[in-house]
Description:
- By secondary structure, chain A is of the alpha/beta class.
- Chain A is 44% helix and 15% strand.
- Chain A folds into three domains: 52 residues, 434 Repressor (Amino-terminal Domain) (Orthogonal Bundle), CATH 1.10.260.40; 124 residues, Response regulator (Rossmann fold, 3-Layer(aba) Sandwich), CATH 3.40.50; 143 residues, Rossmann fold, CATH 3.40.50.
- In chain A, the strands form two sheets. A six-stranded parallel beta sheet of chain A has the order 2-1-3-4-5-11, with helices on both faces. Chain A has a six-stranded mixed beta sheet with strand order 7-6-8-9-10-12, sandwiched between helices.
Amino acid sequence: xxxxxxxxxxxxxxxxxxxxxxxxxxxxxxxxxxxxxxxxxxxxxxxxxxxxxxxxxxxxxxxxxxxxxxxxxxxxxxxxxxxxxxxxxxxxxxxxxxxxxxxxxxxxxxxxxxxxxxxxxxxxxxxxxxxxxxxxxxxxxxxxxxxxxxxxxxxxxxxxxxxxxxxxxxxxxxxxxxxxxxxxxxxxxxxxxxxxxxxxxxxxxxxxxxxxxxxxxxxxxxxxxxxxxxxxxxxxxxxxxxxxxxxxxxxxxxxxxxxxxxxxxxxxxxxxxxxxxxxxxxxxxxxxxxxxxxxxxxxxxxxxxxxxxxxxxxxxxxxxxxxxxxxxxxxxxxxxxxx
Amino acid sequence: xxxxxxxxxxxxxxxxxxxxxxxxxxxxxxxxxxxxxxxxxxxxxxxxxxxxxxxxxxxxxxxxxxxxxxxxxxxxxxxxxxxxxxxxxxxxxxxxxxxxxxxxxxxxxxxxxxxxxxxxxxxxxxxxxxxxxxxxxxxxxxxxxxxxxxxxxxxxxxxxxxxxxxxxxxxxxxxxxxxxxxxxxxxxxxxxxxxxxxxxxxxxxxxxxxxxxxxxxxxxxxxxxxxxxxxxxxxxxxxxxxxxxxxxxxxxxxxxxxxxxxxxxxxxxxxxxxxxxxxxxxxxxxxxxxxxxxxxxxxxxxxxxxxxxxxxxxxxxxxxxxxxxxxxxxxxxxxxxxx
Lengths: 339, 339
């Protein structure tokens, strides 16, 4: 607020305009969630009380209704449905949404926040892997919600899934099929989801008293199909080959199918495969991929609704959410009548 | 330019500041592509010559360096690499880029242009299918470049491929393999690319004196895998089944693989398949898909470079570009030694 506005008392304006103090506060703080009519009434009341309303009037026409959705990469089709969900919530609430795929770290922080300022962004949803300190700095600048990838305990809300139990369930399913040597193809370990899926995988092996062999855990630095094919092929050609793959991404599961073909092994008879995410690819593949479904549309939708709540009210309790996942059984684990 | 600036002669400012006339022109036209130091020097020189620089000084801190990349849908992985190319060009030139997936038509025009204004966008690249009149209205508002999907003859630049000849080449290749009854799975026909690929397909059949049978042209309303599987399966179960599919998208080609499996036909022995775009899926599929590669990264990069030229100079000749495609032969047309 400009210095000239210091003498405002909200109660006087409320009395004059008949509008609640909460709404008056939003007008004075240039929140976007005030109807034009109401905004005008508040400004009129302020004028009649002798307050300087020039700043408020200048801002009337440029309410900030833009939400930025930040993702690590458009390459990963996983984000497409999440963004659609967020967009549905944005549109329903009169917000615009634009997508940004920049990393957010110390190096990019200034240019990224300059972009938020220039575009007059009202809030930010991110699925990126961001350092704790950077998240806190961002959250001090504008309302922020973490989607999927998140850090708990920062007083920054998130909407995500329970990766540990989802991974554990998937591996337990492979064990229930009689698999004894289950390899794991995992993604970039700086992501919390990779750390948690690894935990879930190890928990399932432990509970079933199966050997935890580090030699059959493939840890990749990016979601890269070719690298996954090479690594899986090597494993299948080793002396003690696995009888199943659990993959922390459907892209890796597709790579495991290719590797099995190259090693002349049948899927699912010789090698069972379970992926993660249920992206379009998983049903397009032949054989189609058994996978852990994430409620992608809902993850996006609820993240965006939570963000809009934060934009419209500075003080709301932080409520984070864990959403349910489900295992979708397809041809990489179960021989179907028709392929 | 404001009226008060009319008397400026660039040569006087160039002489005083030691800065080139081209750069001075960019400063005066508030182009974002000028270093802050240089901008200050030009303004100082103008001041010392008695020019009114108030408008320029006001604009110094809010250079508009935002490019909006508009796409029909994030669902189609085809756009991912195009956007990466555009982003590379944007970053190299000091621009930010945000992605928008709204349709642009009469109904959305006002809200879309309001968004461009609110975010202070400097220019727009679009891969959307937009009506002629709407493109012209947009082009009057801000610098615009059409990427891939385009309308020629509007004095609005575009960077695209020659879809007619790319499709003709692909079908000629299938004919060279001895295929006589080549079905075509085509996308939304309002898109110019669909119209052109259909033209190319028909030209190839005509030149080879093969029958043009409308019964084996599947025309779909969207890029939908399931719909394509159903339609292709139906065709393969008909009395006169095709011996090949040409698909105007790799997603359709993946659907043709699935349909062939369902009809217990071998790919490529019984059914050869050629896709289009060379998206990641085409090499991930088993068998991998023979397809027409589009230079996606380059399409994006050159579109963005063209846009930045337009942003920085109001009057540049409209130079559109057709980029080369190539056929990438994989397992859906050629039995490989290792699958």
